[in-house]
Each structure stands twice: as C-alpha cells, then as structure tokens.
Amino acid sequence: ADNKRRKLPSLSGWYMNHMNNHEVATKCISTGFLAVVGDFCAQVLAEYLSNGSILAIKSLDKLRMIAFFFDGTLCTGPLLHYVYKLYEHVYPINGGDDKKGNSGSLKRAFVHVLFDNYVMIVAYISLMMLSTALVEGRYKSIPHEFKFDLIPNIKASYKASALGLMWLQLISFYSL
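The structure corresponding to this sequence follows.
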C-alpha cells in the first residue's frame, strides 16, 4: 500500500517538474494525449449507440486517433497555451485596476470563457478539421467539410458550452 501511495505523488511531481522545465512541450503532449483519449471514448460511445454494446467493436480508427494526437500536440496545444497567455495579458483574471475583489475576478474569468467558447472556438474547430483531414489524407474533402460541417460543428460546440462545459471551464479559470 505504501508503494502505491508513493507512486502517485512521484508521478505528479514528475509531471510538475516537466511543466516547470518544459512548459509548452509538456502542455502540447498532454493535449495530444487527451485528444486521443477523447477520440477513443467517442469511438466507443458511437459503437455503443449504434450496436447497443461496446463488446462488438471490431476495430478502432487508429489513423483518426493519430490525427487527433497530431492536432493536439502540434496545433491545439500550442494555440491554447498562447491564446490563454494572451487572455491574461489583455484582461488578467486576478489583478488589474479591479477593486471589487473576487466578483471582479469572476467577471474577468467569465469574459475569458465567453471569448474562448464563442469566438475562439471557430479557430479551434477549423484548425482541428484541417489538421485531422491532412493527417488522414483527406485533402480533397477539406473544402466540402468546411462548407457543410464547420457551421454544424460550431453550433454543436455552442450548445455543449451553454449546457455545461462553459460552466466547468469558468470554475477552472476562476479557481486556477
């Protein structure tokens, strides 16, 4: 039991050490890894919804998972890092001339979240669609996908944000 207890702090310590020494690279690789986990879950959920069981999964789309890793590591991860730094530079959550204390910080975090979820999401989705299509070799389908899939994807993201994800992000931005 003691050995298991020591591994968790050492893993978090290892990660935080990498964050301190290689912040952008660590964030980018973490984003790529999380993108693969998210895509894996999406593929399993799609299988469950279409067949009523995850036991019937014949094969996962490994190229798609590689594409999501590529996007997270080389596109979305760096973009998120620098966009969030820009948010803090332009309109810091904790600080500024705000004399309101916590309510001012909450307002600033809310502005960050709104901008991220309703303006920057267009760039995030566009970049993800482009990068994954390129990695998967779907060069010719890119114009068609942008014409017919971009707006529905943005609308779906707006709905997901309003129904819960935005509020979780607000808690994260405000607390962390």
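The CA atoms of residues 127 and 172 lie 24 Å apart.
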